[in-house]
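Reopening this one. Same input as before:
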Amino acid sequence: MSSLREKKLFKHMGLKILSLVIAIILWLVIMNIDDYTMTRTIRNIPVVQLNGDSITDLGKVYDVTSGNTVDIVVKGPRTVVDSLKVDSFTATADLSELSLTNSAQITVTANDSRINSQIEISYVNRTVNLTVEDKVMKEFPIKAVAEGILAEGYALGGCTVTPNIIQIDGPESIISRVTEVRATVKVDNQSKTTEAIVVPQCMNAYGEPVTSKSIELETKEVRVTATIYPTKEVPVLIEQMGVPATDYMVTGINYNPQTITITGDEKNLAAVDEITLPTKDLTGIYTDVEMNIGVEEYLPKGIYLADSNDQVAINVFVEGLVTKDIEIAPEDIDLRNKAEGLDYAVVISGVYRIRLKGLEKDLAEVTKESLDIYLNVDGKSEGGYVVSPSYTKPSGVTVALSGHMDLQVTAKEIPTEEGSSEEASSEEGSSEELTETTEEQT
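Same output, byte for byte:
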């Protein structure tokens, strides 16, 4: 039985071996068709710079100008290549091996060492390029900035930062572009004082961030406090400083805005009802003047400007004065408070005039009648007096009198006619008779 089995096992042995060989060949062909060789580009693999201290230990700093990432082309079996991603590789550049042109070669290896033997790697660009400069240090004040729109009826009273000075280190070419260091706090919809811990940021002259891995800030974080106060709208008043040239007058002052919005704590805000701004010195001017006056320096202590515009535009209007003469005659003078039994006479030697000086529009309305010229003769007894008349002074007009005026006061003459004497005697007799009659009745 055993012999029979052995005969069957080895029967047609050549055909069986041939079948096995053909099967192996077919398997190899099929496997080669299914897992063919392919190539694939993998982009933006981050490059790690090694041994940077070989540069910094020399008192220098470096900045990568190109080569922060690398693109590679991978060739190998499809099943392997298809599974590869950016994080399947590590890219390094050894900065201790810088060339004379400050460049270093990039090396990329697969993180799984078994894959390295199955693939081929070629590079699109395998160079890291650096700028190497002297390291400089510079101090800057930190500018605190509040960003956002506050709740309605509130304004920013001030913004402070702690610490307020910072030292930055880095390449000279980069540090030279920094004009300020800014710390920004968000204040959207805030109605009370707020604080925040923020990262200070380097800015250039155009208000744009200056960013570089080679910049080092002495302090990584700072505390910013935005003080927020209620607001109040108050009127603006203008005070004239100085007077124009002789025979000129300020006829008006126009300004804008006529109200401003201020802010401060409630106690200080309640004490302010108006803001008074002085004009520039107007001494000696004879033409219209325009000026802008800053508001902030005239605000009381503890009060801040909430308006974005801190200037008040002022126009001062100036006109020349003119003169007008009015001649006065004796009959133009009203004598007031005359006593009975006295006669009064005004005597003018030559010309007596009233000289008026003012704006043309004001003088046009002044007449002899509107001046209401008079003499108060109350208490004047017989005799002669040198006098000056009184008058109603026009608004905005100066008045000067010139000339010589006298007042003559005399007693009134008593009539001397004969009839009048007899009547007087008759009246005296009647009086005596009446007196006698009264005495008899008594």
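So the earlier flakiness isn't reproducible anymore. For the record, Residues 257 and 312 are 6 Å apart (CA to CA).
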